[in-house]
Specification:
It comes from Durusdinium trenchii. Keywords: Membrane, Transmembrane, Transmembrane helix. This is RGS domain-containing protein. There is one protein chain. The protein is mainly alpha-helical. It has 25 helices and 6 strands. It is about 60% helix and about 5% strand.
């Protein structure tokens, strides 16, 4: 409740003002929606008219090209009147128009790189239909049989030969690009299946196929020019073997790997669906939707590959037959029928394969998603600037030595889970996952465990050996400790929200399942740097409780440690030339980040955002964000869920470093002293978080949109993990 209240005398005035404001807001909202609808309607109208124009123009071009007389100048004789006596020509042109409509429609909804590639393939499919139309018209004119479309001498043998060669070339491009399209679609599935080797072998066979397609014809040409020599004959035989045997073998093996992948996907979904019958209704719906999507995409893959392969054989044999003078009218008619089927099935198949069918009936402007975003890198991006050293040089080998020692206090995910499992059982018996914060855990668990040794928890667990982290976790101590760990686990599982992981961390069964899943992912040994575990609390805060914090369950004051470890704060001697304490471990985070970023270019920052977004009001957290961005480190956000972010992001628009807080007031003074131009820093900070092109929140929203597009892969990953562990049922019981 707000502390402000209005008197009764102002109630009517406030009500009228509120009504007027509501009416004004509603009018503005209706105006905005009207403008948006008008904009979408105009876009759809222009797209429709443009599509009709392109289809008509391209069809006329194909008709004219088919009547070209290939002489010295390839002049077209267009004085002959076309006779549309053969309905087969109309059917072929109608199928070509269908391919054109499919290409334009997918392009208009190409919000991801894969959809953009699918639209390009459909454009190629459209061009193939036009080329086939021209080829068949030219060939029918040349033979001038009873099935002739045009009566006259508009075509000749050279025209047919050129168009036939073009058609074969386009067909080869079609089947290769279709394979590339399928592989790109499967790229999001390999991580979900945790089988990157399948993708490697698919690439190898595809590259082998491309090499044979390139070298085979060249070898055949070279051998044919020297056919009278023994070496020439050998080259001809090698080329024929490559074209007739090796290329089909590579293609068949490639198809077997693809179909094996699809079968495994369906098997995993079936197994997970049986398990989810005992789970929540929502999990069953998600699995059924994903299984249906897998079936539709598999169907699209099968029909596209099948019709393209069949048409390749028919077209090649027909063109070869023409070259040796054995093509007759009925054979061309057979090619025409197969081409019609190929055009339509390719259009339908690629729309199903790419997932573009989900946009049916949806009016949308071209998306502003970045075209270089991959399907599997959800929520992870890298600034293009390179890591650099801080602007100032810190004098003193003791400072550098302490910074490097602090940097080596990483903690593996296995150790983090082991510590979390002990909470409420061996230590901190009052622990409740949905109540206790990181501050509570530090005071009631970490400090008591390490009191006898007087070290940090990371030093205790690692037995004094350095453990260099691959990521630094930026977090605030007022966040639930469960959510902090959930962010780290979600990062290891390549998630960009931690709500599901947080739910699984709430009981022992879920913790066991998560640990097995992380082991299957191969990330249980990943090392993270977390200040609560890395900093030696006994050389700093353990000796006092200045804010009188209490255990929220027992309501007892946090105990004060009785250890005699010397305490070092920001200005405790000995000092460096900048007046900073050398032994203090709480004033070296920026130098430590710089050291790790220069030592390991892949070192990244993980930002564990709490549900209330309080992290963005903490001084040290914002300083770490700004420093990581300045050094060019990869940064990624992990939030509880999308609704939390969208409902609270407006609170970040007025961020000011002067208003930020820290557990120790001297930390705020230290951070502010390092910022000469605070207004410029505030602007840069807001840009870092809120910029509509490269801001952290924008990148997270784009990652969320991509994950929604790749929902099949997301559900498949959890389906595989849940069926591979001893008890994966909690995944579907807590599915969100």
């Amino acid at each position: 409740m707000s502390s402000d209240s209005s008197g009764d005398s102002d109630g009517g005035s406030d009500t009228l003002s509120s009504c007027a404001l509501t009416s004004s807001s509603s009018t503005d909202l209706r105006s905005a929606w009207t403008f948006k609808l008008n904009q979408v309607s105009l876009y759809r109208c222009l797209t429709f008219l443009g599509a009709i124009f392109l289809i008509i123009l391209s069809s006329l071009g194909a008709l004219l090209l088919g009547t070209c007389k290939a002489g010295a100048s390839f002049a077209c004789e267009i004085d002959a009147t076309p006779q549309y006596a053969d309905m087969n020509l109309c059917i072929l042109m109608a199928c070509t128009a269908v391919a054109a409509c499919g290409a334009i429609w997918v392009w208009c909804h190409a919000s991801t790189p894969h959809l953009l590639q699918a639209s390009r393939f459909l454009v190629l499919n459209w061009i193939e239909g036009l080329a086939s139309t021209s080829l068949i018209i030219a060939a029918r004119e040349y033979y001038d049989d009873e099935l002739t479309y045009y009566y006259g001498d508009g075509g000749d043998a050279l025209t047919v030969s050129v168009l036939g060669s073009l058609r074969v070339f386009l067909l080869v491009c079609e089947i290769v690009i279709l394979q590339v399209l399928i592989q790109n679609r499967l790229q999001s599935i390999w991580p979900a299946l945790n089988q990157p080797r399948f993708g490697v072998w698919l690439n190898r066979f595809l590259w082998a196929e491309l090499a044979l397609l390139t070298l085979g014809p060249l070898t055949l040409i070279i051998g044919a020019t020297h056919r009278r020599s023994e070496l020439g004959l050998i080259l001809v035989y090698i080329a024929i073997a490559a074209l007739v045997l090796l290329i089909p073998c590579c293609f068949v093996i490639w198809m077997i790997l693809v179909f094996a992948t699809l079968c495994r996907v369906l098997y995993i979904f079936n197994a997970a669906q049986q398990m989810a019958q005992e789970g929540s209704l929502e999990s069953g719906k998600a699995l059924r939707r994903s299984r249906r999507a897998a079936l539709l995409q598999g169907l699209g893959l099968v029909i596209s590959l099948a019709t393209t392969s069949i048409f390749t054989g028919v077209a090649v044999s027909t063109v070869v037959g023409y070259e040796v003078g054995q093509v007759e009218g009925f054979e061309l008619q057979g090619v025409q029928y197969v081409q019609c089927v190929n055009l339509v099935t390719n259009t339908i198949g690629v729309i199903l394969l790419s997932g573009a069918y989900r946009f049916w009936g949806v009016s949308s402007l071209p998306s502003d998603l970045p075209k270089d975003s991959g399907p599997t890198g959800f929520g992870r991006f890298r600034f293009k600037s390179r890591p650099v050293r801080p602007k100032r040089e810190v004098v003193g080998t003791e400072w550098e030595a302490k910074t490097q020692e602090l940097a080596g206090r990483g903690l593996s995910l296995q150790h983090l889970l082991s510590f979390y499992r002990s909470l409420g059982n061996e230590i901190m018996l009052s622990y409740r996952p949905d109540v206790h914060t990181t501050n509570d855990v530090v005071r009631l668990a970490i400090i008591p465990i390490t009191a006898r040794h007087g070290t940090s928890y990371a030093q205790l667990v690692n037995r004094g050996e350095p453990a260099m982290p691959r990521k630094m976790v930026t977090h605030n101590w007022s966040n639930l400790f469960r959510d902090l760990l959930a962010s780290v686990v979600a990062d290891a599982l390549e998630e960009h929200t931690f709500e599901l992981v947080s739910a699984l961390l709430s009981d022992e069964v879920g913790i066991n399942a998560l640990e097995q899943m992380i082991r299957l992912q191969g990330t249980l040994g990943d090392i993270y740097w977390i200040c609560a575990f890395a900093v030696n609390q006994h050389s700093g805060i353990c000796g006092a409780n200045p804010r009188a914090d209490v255990d929220p369950v027992t309501m007892l004051l946090h105990p004060v440690c009785s250890c005699r470890t010397p305490k070092f704060f920001n200005t405790t001697p000995p000092l460096n030339p900048y007046g900073e304490s050398i032994p203090c471990e709480m004033n070296k985070f920026d130098d430590m980040m710089s050291f790790l970023a220069c030592k390991d270019p892949s070192f990244a920052e993980l930002v564990a955002v709490d549900a209330s977004l309080e992290l963005f009001s903490r001084a040290w957290c914002m300083a770490e964000l700004a420093e990581a961005q300045r050094m060019g480190m990869a940064q990624s956000l992990l939030v509880r869920n999308k609704a939390t972010l969208l409902s609270r992001q407006h609170t970040l628009e007025g961020l000011r470093v002067q208003d930020m807080k820290a557990s120790r007031p001297e930390d705020v003074d230290t951070i502010l002293a390092k910022i000469p131009n605070k207004d410029a820093f505030n602007q840069r900070l807001r840009s870092l978080i809120l910029d509509r092109r490269v801001g952290l929140l924008t990148a997270w929203k784009q990652a969320d949109s991509l994950q929604q597009t790749e929902q099949l892969s997301h559900v498949l990953k959890w389906a595989r993990l849940s069926t591979a562990v001893t008890d994966g049922l909690p995944v579907w019981q807590n599915w969100v």
